[in-house]
Amino acid sequence: MCGCVSEPRNGGIPGPGRKFPVICIAGPIAAGKNQAASVLERRGWLCVDADRLVHDILENLKDKIVVLHADAARKRGISLLNADGTLNRRAVGQIVFSDPAALAAQESLVHPAVDAALHTFIDANSDKPIALNGTVFYKTDVFKRCSAVLFVDAPKLIRFFRIKSRDCLGFRQILKRFHAQAGIFAKYKKTNADIYKVWNIGKPYALERKIDKFLAYCRYKGY
């Protein structure tokens, strides 16, 4: 199944002076968001990897992150810092993906910095279409500037083996990540965004064709 998933909805407002759209590439872990971003890049889009951006921001905020999760780390007997002094993101992940309150507290620190960086990037690149690639953009202020959402999904079993091969995570760790992202599609629908959903279950060229249909849809909508 692919295509517009609901009645036509309102697109976001990219900002004054922009001639090109801003869209969001969303979807659960290991669905193929980066693969979709690569297709768009080959078609002239600027794509921002939110995961990489968040990694940089977490490192900049590591002192606050360590204080925030100190008690949880002590109870688990894990270190939040690597031997070289950088933030141990895997240890942080163990905490936030098993405790919604810890995740929410961390997001309250990280999301304002993400918003600021992305607003600046969008304003500085008004001459090209932009795709923001990430999982939980519906929680951010910059999401209001997205004309449409390209929601990439795949069955859980396929995503499970992709994660196991790519990230070398254990069974329980993968399930915790699945649980943390449960109902993500419904959460995007509640935003009243214009959502176009594609399933990434075949060969790369199949996803590429679906994305070309999405781009045709965007042109039809006037984004």
Can you put this structure into words, describing what you see?
It is an enzyme of class 2 (transferase). Helix content is 51%, strand content 12%. The protein has 223 residues and is an alpha/beta fold. The chain has two domains: 118 residues, 3-Layer(aba) Sandwich (Rossmann fold); 77 residues, P-loop containing nucleotide triphosphate hydrolases (Rossmann fold), CATH 3.40.50. The chain has a six-stranded mixed sheet with strand order 1-6-5-2-4-3. The radius of gyration is 18 Å and the shape is globular. It starts with a strand and ends with a helix.
List the topology elements.
Layout (H helix, E strand, L loop, with lengths): L2 E2 L17 E5 L6 H10 L3 E4 H11 L1 H7 L1 H7 L12 H8 L3 H25 L5 E4 L14 E6 L2 H12 L3 H10 L3 H6 L5 E5 L4 H18 L2
Parallel strand pairs: 2-4, 2-5, 3-4, 5-6
Antiparallel strand pairs: 1-6
Helix pairs in contact: 1-10, 7-8
EC number: 2.7.1.24
Subcellular location: Cytoplasm
Family: Belongs to the CoaE family.
Keywords:
223 residues; 2 domains; globular; Rossmann fold; single chain; alpha/beta; 51% helix; 6-stranded mixed beta sheet; P-loop_NTPase; transferase; cytoplasm; kinase; coenzyme a biosynthesis
Q: Roughly how much helix do the residues carry, as a percent range?
A: 40-55%
Which percent band covers the strand fraction?
5-15%
CATH superfamily of the largest domain: P-loop containing nucleotide triphosphate hydrolases
Mean pLDDT: 90
Number of domains: 2
What's the level 1 CATH class of the largest domain?
Answer: Alpha Beta
Helix and strand run: EEHEHHHHHEEHHHEH
Number of strands: 6
CATH topology of the largest domain: Rossmann fold
Computed Rg: 18 Å
In the sheet with the most strands, the strands line up as 1-6-5-2-4-3
Q: How does the helix and strand content classify structurally?
A: alpha/beta
pLDDT under 50 segments (min length 5)? 4-8
